[in-house]
Amino acid sequence: EELEKKLASASAEQDEAEWDGDHEVQGGKPTAGSKRSKDARAVQTKSRKRAKVSAQIKEEYRPGYVDADYTYYCTLDDETCGEVADKLGCFWKDLALANKSRYGAIREWDRFREYTTLVIPGVVKKETLMSLAPTP
């Protein structure tokens, strides 16, 4: 009978949990002071910070275009490093190397979230960048 209560409690907790989109489950009813409750608080804090940063980025950049100084490219949702490199007219390795200090190792097939700003490598031609500039 005690085992059945524990199973029912665990099942109810699992039903209340939510998937956060990054292959991790968040939510449920963690016990006070547990590692899981601390992790949940950290995720909530990061989400609030991320929302503020996203709001600032959205005002300055438009997805699929370069900025006014031709320094950064703002990605579309699910755009790969290879696709961005093709648009810019460079090799994906040049793009990955230019952004390694910002994002770490980037592979050709890695997908970016919308509004990810990438540093444009120096090998990209000015004419190509001008064609990717937004029209006023």
Structural topology:
Layout (H helix, E strand, L loop, with lengths): L1 H15 E3 L5 E3 L7 H26 L11 E3 L4 E2 H8 L3 H7 L1 H4 L7 E2 L4 E3 L6 H6 L5
Antiparallel strand pairs: 1-2, 3-6, 4-5
Which labels suit this protein?
136 residues; mainly alpha; two-stranded antiparallel ribbon; elongated
**First-to-last CA distance:** 70 Å
Helix and strand run: HEEHEEHHHEEH
Mean pLDDT: 74
Estimate the global geometry from the Cα principal axes: elongated
The description of the largest β-sheet is: 2 strands, antiparallel
As laid out across the biggest beta sheet, the strand order is 1-2
Beta strands, count = 6
Give the proportion of residues in helices. Answer: 40-55%
Please state the CA-atom Rg, rounded to the nearest Å: 21 Å
Q: What is the percentage of strand-forming residues?
A: 5-15%
User: Which residues sit in consecutive blocks of at least 5 with pLDDT less than 50?
Assistant: 14-32, 46-56
Helix/sheet category:
mainly alpha
What's the tally of helices? 6
Explain what you see.
The chain has 136 residues and is mainly alpha-helical. The chain contains six helices and six strands; from the N terminus they run H-E-E-H-E-E-H-H-H-E-E-H. A two-stranded antiparallel sheet has the order 1-2. It has a two-stranded antiparallel ribbon with strand order 3-6. A hairpin with a 5-residue loop joins strand 1 and strand 2 (25-27). Helix 3 crosses helix 4. The radius of gyration is 21 Å and the shape is elongated. The termini are far apart. Residues 14-32 and 46-56 have low confidence and may be disordered.
